[in-house]
Amino acid sequence: MRNIIILGSGPGWESCPFDRETWVVAKMLMQDKPLARIDMLFSMDDADHWLTVRRGIFTIEDFKAKVNATGAPYYSSVKTPGIDVAREYPLKDVLSRCKVPYFSNTVAYMIAYAIYQKVDSITLYGIAQIAASEYISERGCVEFWIGMALGMGIEVNIATHSALLKNGSQYPYGYVRTLQELREDGKI
Amino acid sequence: MREIIILGSGPGAENCPFDREVWAVGKALMGTKPLTRVDKFFMLDDLDQLLSTKVASNKDDYLKELGNLTGLVAGLDGSLDFGPSEFFTKADKIKMSIHDLTTLRQELVHQNRFTKEDFIKKINESEDVPFITCRKHPDVPSSVAYPLKEIVKKFGIPYFTNTIAYMLAYALYEKVDSIQIYGVVQGGYYEYMKERKGVEFWLGIAAGTGIKIEIKGNSELLTNDDNLLYGYKRSPEQLKYEDII
Lengths: 188, 245
What we know:
The structure holds 2 protein chains of 2 kinds. Helices cover 32% and strands 15% of the residues of chain A. Chain A contains 6 helices and 7 strands. In chain A, helix 3 (91-98) packs across helix 4 (106-116) and helix 4 packs parallel to helix 5 (132-151). The radius of gyration of chain A is 18 Å and the shape is globular. The two termini of chain A are 31 Å apart. The model of chain A has no long low-confidence stretch (mean pLDDT 91). In chain B, 37% of the residues lie in helices and 11% in strands. Chain B contains 8 helices and 7 strands; from the N terminus they run βββααααββααβαβα. Mean pLDDT of chain B is 80; it is low at 53-59 and 66-95. At the A-B interface, helix 3, helix 4 and helix 5 of A face helix 5, helix 6 and helix 7 of B.
């Protein structure tokens, strides 16, 4: 059994137990708290555009030093110079299995990679998808890849507070009773 | 092989070939074109909440939306430089032709004539076609309650953002082999902001279980912003050309 954690920087990430293979959104390295275990790092973004970099809170060189200190493979859209274990994301290989070239953020690429690697379970920590651009533009894509994983028989758990797979309200679309009420009435 | 079409009421619905089992949203009945074949109707919305039936209670809102769209159509005089509208958040990103927008406007004008009673009359003309909805409707003898309990039991996730999401879940439940989608753009304000993601979730499960999915015509579904893959900043076509995918 290969069980992994995908760890983002959203609310609740601190409850991550680091008790199995942990794939980390690389931006996590720019916060202060230590991460007990990192097996892979992913960042498909252009680091020059990160808010923390643009605001001068962090430099690219700081970031590269942090990545190199982990010794973990660092996956990105291109092999990043100055990172020892930089690896190009195997997009072609991933799509040979998953077919659909639809990616709106790094987490979507991570789930697709987990599918490609045929893991047995994925548990998400700190992936809230509640910031404006995440909620509007990115969330649907992450949910597509969660759906793909579930469809392929991979167990997916969302461990911390998240907008993922949640209806906009307690009422499933069209129904005049809440999920809780429908459960109590034996309707679901 | 069980192949179905899921037919929405958005632009492109008119291209549906009706050459296999067709599951249509109820609103498709309110379009200008005849539906040559429908095997199931779905409408999980409350009839009173349909756009056209809301007109009677709040005509101003409807006319405002229609006005925005009219402005879009009027503005398409060879230039695609129109601003975002309340009705079509992403109209400038969906490569809609003047023909598409004009057709959409005509459809909305046509829908404006529909009342709840008109809809009930129309759905009852198709008395042999199951009308699948949240609960059996007293005025529609063909109405059938959506098997929510069975579907949630099978898939474990009560996540439904619109009627299309319910239709996809139902198709998975019925173990169809392929789904073609016509007239499902998901580019309207609420569709894009709130509903598209639930549709994409169920599309993901369908794709993962090996169901062949084809999204026909203009749609925001499974489409990257600006058609560029995140991080790569190039379209799937460019990446294919460069042998990256």
